[in-house]
Amino acid sequence: MALPIDSVVAYIVGRFPRPVTRTELVKLVFLFECNFYRSYGRTFTGVSWRRYHYGPYSREVVDAAQRLRDNRAIEIVELPNQYLGSTFYHFPVGDEVPELDPAVRAVMDWTLAQTECLDLEGIKRLAYTMPPMERLSEEGACRGDEVGGMLDMSAMRAKRAKKPLAAIRRASARVNRECRGTKQEYASVILSEYATLAGARKKANEWLQ
Question: Domain limits of the chain?
Answer without folding.
Answer: 4-208
